Amino acid sequence: MFSRVGDDVSLPCNNVVYPDCSSTTWLYNRALSTRTIQEVTLGEIKVDQTERADRLSLGSNCSLHVSDVRAEDVGLYICRQFLTETGTQHGGDAPVHLSVLTRSTASTARPAFSSTSPSSAGTSNAVKLPISHIMLFVTLTIMAAIVTIHTRRNRPPKALPPQAEEASGMEIHVLEE
């Protein structure tokens, strides 16, 4: 799932047991982190567990609503269902991966968007180019290589000019039978 910085996003929970969300637990694993945070437990947002509690709420069908999305919200969210507080998990996990699009300034007047994902979450000094520029560069490079190869294959072998034959001191005689 994708969202832009500053937008609101609702992450769906596809295995809801009770519509009042009393069976719903949401876990969050930040990109490139081994720590899992339990942000919602049995329908209650855990204020003491997450610094984002003021931006989280449960929506219809127990979806996790994140308001004012930030780049650090990228990661894996897992919705789980429990029939009772001490009971075992009911059904499987319902994972949702959130990628956050961040706005960057390009050299032109129009804005460019780039994606922050788990593999690029920690790199702030990366060069960001619009996809169209990269595709144009790759296309032109491939075309130049094709033209060069085609030209070299179809070129006739070079004949020595008459002056080169004389300078070499060699005489060429054609024998006829």
Automatic annotation (TrEMBL):
The chain crosses the membrane at residues 129-149. One of its GO terms (cellular component) is external side of plasma membrane. InterPro entries: Ig-like_dom, Ig-like_dom_sf, Ig-like_fold. It comes from the Eukaryota. One of its GO terms (molecular function) is MHC class II protein binding. The keyword Ligase does not apply. Gene3D superfamilies: Immunoglobulins (2.60.40.10). Residues 1-80 form the Ig-like domain. One of its GO terms (biological process) is positive regulation of ERK1 and ERK2 cascade. Keywords: Membrane, Transmembrane, Transmembrane helix. This is Ig-like domain-containing protein. It comes from Oncorhynchus mykiss.
